[in-house]
Amino acid sequence: MRLLSRGKLDAACIALPTNAPGLVVDVLEKQPLIAVLPASHRHARRRTLSLQDLSADPLFWFRRARQPAFFDHCRAVFERHGFAPPLLEEPEDHHVLLAAVASGRGVALLPASFAAIRRDGVTYKPLREGAELHVGLGLATGADRPDVRQFLLTCCRASRSGPSTT
Known about the structure:
Elements: H1 2-5, E1 11-16, E2 23-38, E3 59-61, H2 68-80, E4 87-89, H3 94-102, E5 107-111, E6 122-126, E7 134-142, H4 146-160
Parallel strand pairs: 3-4, 3-5
Antiparallel strand pairs: 1-7, 2-5, 2-6, 2-7
C-alpha cells in the first residue's frame, strides 16, 4: 500500500479488513469465517456454532505480523464475545493445518471457501459470528485516481456478469 500512497501504483487488490488511510477501498468480495473441527469433536454434529462453543478448544491462529489489521479486527471481535481460547501457532500450509485439526490437536477458523477442501477427519461449521469475522478482497486506489477506480470497478462488474452474447 506504500506504493499506492506514493503514487507509484494506480491500484491494488488488497486483503480485507485492513487499515488504508488516504486510499479509497472498495469491497469486491467478503467471506465469513467458519469453524474447522475434527470430525470426532463434541460439536461436530451441530449445524451452527458460536465462538463460545469453542472457547475450551485450542485454536490454531496466525501471528499478528502476517496480517496486522485482520489480526486486530479478529481480536476485537473475540473480546466483544468473551472468546479467549488457548492458542496454537497456525502452520503456514493449510494442508498441514487440516491434518493437525483432523488429528484432534485443535480447531481453526478459516474463510468459508476452505470448505471446498475435503479432508477425512475434518468438518466445517458456520459460525454465528461469521459475518463479524470475515475476510475479503478489496480494490484500493488513490483518492486522486477516480478514473482508474471507476474503470476497474466496471471491469469487475462485467467479469461477474459473465461473457457478453452480443
